[in-house]
User: What shape does this take?
Amino acid sequence: MKIRFFILSLVIPLAVFSCTPKEIDPDKPEDGTEQQPVDPEPEPEPEPEPAKHLDPVPLSFVEKGKFDIDFTYDESAAEWTLTTTGTDPYIYTSALSADLEEGLRVLSFDYICTSVISDLQVFYGRAISEARSRHFGSIPATPVGAWRNYSCTIASDRLSFGWGKAGDNLRLDFGNKKGVKIQIRNFQVREMNEAELAAYQAEIQKAQGKDAEAARIDDYLGRSFPCAVTSVVVGASEVEIKGRTDGGSGYFLADIAPWEDITEMSTFPNVTAINGSSFSINLPRTVSRDGLAGYDRLLSRFAIVKADGSLCSKARYAGEIYSVGSPSAVKPKSKKGLGGFVYNENIADLDDLGIGSVTVNIVLNSVVNTVRKGNYSIAYPFCGTTYYMDSGYTSQLDLFMRECGKRGIVVSAILLNRQSDTNSSATPVLKHPENDGGNYSMPNLTTAAAVNVYAAALDFLAKRYSTQAGGRIHHWILHNEVDAQKEWTNMGDQPELRYMDEYVKSMRICHNIAHKYDPSAYVLISLTHSWARKEMQYASKSLLEDLCRFGSAEGDFRWGVAYHPYPQNLAKPEFWNDDTSSTYSMNSNYCTFKNLEVVDAWVRDNAHFYNGKEKRILFLSENGTNSPSYSESDLAKQAAGAAWAWKKTAALEGIDGIQWHNWRDNRGEGGLRIGLRRFPDDPDDPNGRKPSWYVWEAAGTSKEATVFDQYLPVIGIGSWNDIFETVQ
Assistant: This one.
């Protein structure tokens, strides 16, 4: 199930007072006569008002709307017992009977639960939406019979969402595991204690600091500098950097590593003197620095600075990279693909469906470890440090990659970084220090050691999967739905440019390492259907424009788009009727199957081309329509959606491929049935082919018209030409 979030915007009201007093000579009365000053009688200090304490407001659970959860209430003990019955458990509170006092800003309860609940997500009613929700992290297990308190500050959420009025309620989502029992009492909204208030004030200050850093990044990207680094060429053993100054003296070339933030640096420790107004400097490709015995400058960007720490140019990454191999660029033999591919008993579908491309998830911290342990047995030296790769995980990838390789199928690897335990000691190293939950984390690029672990895992994969015969990763998708980062690439609450600055570093590391082995490799940004609307943290279109800015400032690179044009409501298959906010405007709130023309138009605009010359790759890398049930009507609606999606994909020149997600229905997706096959454990037809499977089989073949045209009445149109519109 696709879980969506928002980015928090703190609004700090400032009171400004001003007055213009009358000028008075204190030694002269207003009547003009002289007078000795008289000391005024001291006014008694007012008695401090006693602090007003607010009574907490109790909350209760209700039966209506609950899902995958049961509950009972013991009135004598005033105690709730909740038991999860599925993998997407949530329950609602009763509506508030009156407006809450402003000072009631903490959601709190006492609980007993012998199992860890991975996350508590709170949705703020009345209108429940992912954009009005927040994750508060895990609920720790308790010793048997021992009560513990769980509290979360909702002060900022109350401000952002205007929550707390009579009639408002909450929805609480308790993790993602079936069979968990939690007892709850003293369930209430209360005022902050001193420690919580201090922490809240510190968070406000921290948010203001992040905003200031984002403003400095914005200034850096837009500023004109007197000097410029014009090219960076990474050779087999040296890096050649060329550029120009304004003819002045005292300039230095700074080597800036990924763990260094250019806008926050007051000194640049790794510099080389520049002589002349035009320069060409050759540096060794590897160097010992920051605890790394063999740091590879392939990962660096270079800028011109002065000894006082002032920045005199934008930084520039490598534009040319020496490659140990030269596999030719490969285009999918068909635009038709599958998403989330794994090796299973349906492998023949690759042939039967005529699949030209697939995506595969790769969890990086299931690949790499910092120590030899269990299956982490493949020693891999990298930049002076030896890491250990998982032989079992790798053998499964080998099997999958070979099956794709022998069929000429283009593979896009989705790189994920699980923030929770993976039995690898690399997990806490790779977890971003500002991560505050979610399924996956932004990679930690804040230290040399963390960057090296990340780079080692990428280097291992890029080297291993760089030939068509042995299996090849053609495209690298980083990471998942980055506009909904709180769930899928979590870095905590961030201003957009501060988040993108970190994300671009991740893309650049992957891009440059992949190009060591494959000069035609692409890295792709993964985005949801929220086009110009900030449904979660950010809007997809805005992030794409950010990427263009970074590329323009620091040298363009081969990046493309991995877009997810699900219907606005993933559960509803009739997007042609339901997606009312998916319009044919470049500022449409959403871009779904209904209006694919929008993202197609964006990628075909030569203002967005790679180096202004080459259209960027656009894959619809995760998308599908739901069959709410296995009724004939619901299955027909899903199949009609698949036919629509194919017709548009095939006709729109900017779209290079569509990977249908899922291959088969998955119990872990919150009740959705978006696969081409039924659930493997379906009692009536396990793993059975759905009508959408036959649509996908016919797509692009001589059977297309016969199979597709039966779904025209389902959509309510007379011709497939009727689905196309012009973007305004």
In short: Residues 1-37 have pLDDT under 50 and may be disordered.
